[in-house]
């Protein structure tokens, strides 16, 4: 079998279990034992290491021989994939020693594990039913897959145009308000017409302006030094010192004072009120829109929006034409896909009912209901059993109906394989019905590794591996049974704790028939 399988499983300190290590083969694997022994607890642990449940175990570890898309989850591929659950202060999950969230782990594990709990209606959801019908149609008609792709492409384009048209109609309803607002902001920014860097220049100018009088007073006081310039030069000459350095310094001071005085005089010609107003105008724009670069970018966007609003009638007309064309293409693609689905609906129903007949169940009816086009097509599917809604059928009927769909899917996608974990699939069934379920599961196990809890000898007798779960001194244990032990366990399942010779003979006959 080329399907993915779980090779081994280890658990430690999981409620009534202390420590167990199990190795698994391909095919059908059954767990049996007295009620309350810990079968469901074990399945909870098995599901928990793959993220489907939450466990109280200290440690869980599973080794899977499979090819999984680990790189899509940022995990390195190894020869085998090792799933690990550790619980100390909190629960932690690992795949190949790399930490992973429970949600992501479940998504990853769902690539090869299907968990079907009691009353799990997943097979009967519209998306699952359509996927099964499409798989059947694609197997029998090579162009069906292309019809699905064509429909999806048409639907995506239709939704894009529909959303764009809706947006324009929404804008159109308040177009005047939007135009006025865009024009108002454009006028507000253009009235100020800020230049990049201008705000910094104005602030620097304001600083100089605020220091104007102080600078003037300081220069007047400092210019007194020039009255002693000649006396200092004469003194330097008398004592024989070079005066060039002093003369250079005095010339530097004279130039600096004259340059600053000229700048101050220039300030006299500037309208201070206008400068302060300009600073306030730019400050107000910056408070609302950000930096001057952001102000100018906002202005650009507003102008583009205004152009769009002014041209909206033309855009709307163009989109309406595109919408009609897209709608026509979508309807055509939907009709093509619907016709193909209708063609293969009854053959699929016949395939499923063939399995239901094997399990002594009345035929089911699968119906396609026309719907407005949506992402999966222009129809929805539903299933009834003797005109009774799925949620209203008995538990025994429900399990067999569900198994019929699983078996049909297995036949349609025989090369997919994987792992099925079933929760008491044969509960509430008679011996004859249980045997029919066992035969179907045995058939499916050619492509799937199946884990099942069973209280019936029929299913247990068909298993590739049979594990017995028991409890002693409030501690649960699991062991794989050899052939002789299997006969004893089947006998117990047939006649109870007091095993009769007749029960043993029946158990042996079951094993002979199902090896």
Number of strands: 15
The CATH class of the domain at 1-112 and 417-481 is: Alpha Beta
CATH superfamily of the domain at 1-112 and 417-481: P-loop containing nucleotide triphosphate hydrolases
CATH topology of the domain at 1-112 and 417-481: Rossmann fold
Percentage of residues in strands: 15-25%
Mean pLDDT: 89
Helix content: 55-70%
The separation of the N and C termini measures 18 Å
For the sheet with most strands, the description reads: 6 strands, antiparallel
CATH architecture of the domain at 1-112 and 417-481: 3-Layer(aba) Sandwich
How are the strands of the largest sheet arranged?
Answer: 2-1-4-5-6-7
Helix vs. strand class: alpha/beta
Shape from CA axes? elongated
Number of helices: 17
Poorly predicted sequence stretches spanning 5 or more consecutive residues: none
Rg calculated over all Cα atoms: 42 Å
């Amino acid at each position: 079998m080329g399907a993915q399988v779980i090779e081994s499983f280890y658990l430690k300190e999981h409620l009534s279990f202390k420590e167990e290590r199990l190795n698994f083969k391909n095919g059908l694997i059954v767990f049996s034992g007295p009620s309350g022994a810990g079968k469901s607890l074990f399945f909870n642990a098995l599901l928990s290491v793959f993220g489907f449940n939450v466990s109280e175990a200290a440690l869980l570890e599973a080794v899977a021989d499979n090819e999984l898309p680990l790189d899509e989850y940022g995990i390195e591929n190894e020869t085998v994939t090792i799933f690990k659950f550790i619980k100390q202060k909190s629960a932690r999950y690992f795949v190949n020693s790399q930490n992973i969230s429970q949600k992501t782990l479940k998504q990853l594990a769902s690539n090869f594990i299907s968990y079907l709990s009691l009353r799990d209606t997943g097979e009967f959801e519209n998306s699952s039913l359509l996927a099964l019908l499409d798989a059947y149609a694609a197997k029998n008609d090579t162009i069906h897959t292309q019809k699905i792709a064509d429909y999806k492409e048409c639907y995506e384009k239709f939704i894009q145009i529909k959303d764009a048209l809706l947006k324009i109609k929404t804008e159109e309803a308040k177009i005047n308000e939007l135009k006025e607002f865009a024009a108002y902001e454009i006028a507000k920014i253009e009235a100020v017409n800020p230049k990049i860097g201008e705000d910094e220049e104005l602030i620097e100018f304001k600083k100089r302006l605020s220091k104007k009088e102080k600078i003037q007073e300081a220069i007047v006081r400092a210019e007194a030094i020039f009255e002693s310039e000649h006396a200092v030069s004469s003194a330097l000459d008398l004592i024989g010192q070079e005066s060039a350095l002093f003369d250079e310094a005095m010339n530097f001071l004279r130039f600096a004072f004259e340059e600053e005085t000229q700048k101050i005089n220039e300030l006299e010609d500037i309208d201070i009120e206008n400068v302060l107003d300009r600073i306030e105008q730019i400050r107000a724009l910056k408070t609302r829109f950000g930096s001057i670069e952001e102000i100018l970018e906002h202005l650009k966007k507003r102008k583009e929006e205004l152009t769009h609003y002014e041209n909206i009638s033309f855009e709307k007309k163009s989109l309406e034409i595109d919408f009609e064309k897209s709608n026509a293409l979508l309807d055509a693609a939907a009709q093509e896909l619907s016709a193909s689905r209708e063609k293969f609906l009854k053959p699929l129903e016949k395939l499923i009912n063939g399995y239901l007949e094997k399990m002594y169940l009345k035929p089911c009816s699968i119906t396609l209901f026309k719907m407005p086009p949506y992402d999966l097509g222009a129809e929805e599917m539903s299933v009834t059993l003797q005109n009774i809604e799925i949620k209203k059928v008995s538990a025994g009927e429900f399990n067999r109906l569900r198994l019929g769909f699983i078996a049909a899917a297995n036949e349609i996608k025989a090369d997919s394989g994987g792992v099925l974990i079933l929760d008491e699939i044969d509960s509430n069934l008679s011996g004859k019905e249980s045997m029919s379920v066992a035969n179907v599961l045995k058939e499916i196990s050619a492509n799937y590794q199946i884990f099942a809890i069973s209280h019936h000898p029929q299913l247990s007798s068909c298993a590739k591996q049979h594990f017995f779960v028991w409890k002693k001194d409030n501690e649960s244990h699991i062991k794989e049974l050899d052939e002789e032990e299997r006969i004893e366990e089947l006998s117990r399942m047939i006649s109870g704790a007091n095993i009769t010779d007749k029960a043993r003979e029946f158990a042996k006959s079951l094993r002979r028939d199902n090896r």
